[in-house]
Design a protein that fits this description.
Elements: H1 32-39, E1 53-62, E2 65-75, E3 80-84, H2 91-98, E4 106-111, H3 116-125, E5 127-130, H4 142-151, H5 157-170, H6 186-197, E6 204-208, H7 216-231, E7 235-239, H8 243-249, E8 252-257, E9 260-265, H9 267-274, E10 278-283, H10 289-296, E11 302-305, E12 310-314, H11 317-326, E13 333-338, H12 341-349
Parallel strand pairs: 3-7, 3-8, 5-6, 6-7
Antiparallel strand pairs: 1-2, 1-4, 8-9, 10-12, 10-13, 11-12
Amino acid sequence: MAPTATDRHGPPAAGRWRPLAGETLTPSGVPSATVAAVSGLTAATAGPEEPLVLARGLVKRFGDFEAVRGIDVEVRRGEAFGFLGPNGAGKTSTMRMIAAVSTVTGGTLRVLGMDPATDGPAIRGRLGVCPQDDTLDSELTVRENLLVYGRFFGLSRAECARRADELLGFVQLTDKVNARVEELSGGLKRRLTIARSLVNEPELLMLDEPTTGLDPQARHLVWDRLFRLKQRGTTLLLTTHYMDEAEQLCDRLVVIDDGVIVAEGSPATLIREHSTREVCELRFEVDDHEQVAAKVSDLAERVEVLPDRVLLYADNGEAVAQAVHERGLSPRGTLVRRSSLEDVFLRLTGRSLVE
């Protein structure tokens, strides 16, 4: 859900914010009306007990194609809420509508207590957006990126400097303040992008695939920073293809497939409702997996055949593994593990997350 790839009247297009009629852009691509919204525009706002995002029967069409087909979403203040789904499922279209950069085709949507159709600038001014692709100014230094971005929200130079120093400390980039962006690694750029998205002290932080392309160490550091934000009371709304990321960060999440929500709940609830307590993984020769599945199907509640292994879902994985060996089958490898969100996803959508 890149804030730089929007289209208010059609499919998302590459590039920066596309303005409405009469709307101009600042150099970073932020609509100039957003600055006015932050500095002086008054509008209704969500109360402390009201959801920050409330969608009912939300629909998004692009011509004859219906990307989002009547979904209900409620994001509560202070929680981390996730959208999971394969590419093309509708999650990014939903995020763009919530970000007030793509028009709603049908249903109702309120963000921060306001209507994106009439209060778009005010909403955008109070959101933080961390796109999947970094849109940093590569010719500026790390600190300059934050200083310039803060000015687009009407902040004074002194306030920009204060927030820049605080945020660089928060994302552990204090030792890189004078480095140019082009000199940074992917993980450092990601941390800087998150810091920039927090310059305006947003009530709702939207993250699109926040750790895609990062090595495990960098991913865990980003997770730590996001977890600390949640502890501070920042509301997080994210999309991710990593099941372990969703389990680490999300209080609640929805699984979207073909434009509709097929499941909703906490990670633990989804696992309990849509999978078994344990999974027994069996690895045989690739050509044997289908035959093996037929021979052991009665040992588990469900059997899933993947290209490299057979998954047997049962409450007692060790007992299943023993029964397999007692039938004279000798897998090349056996693993008994707890069920995960990826198992839930496979059951609900029948395919992997990345298509």
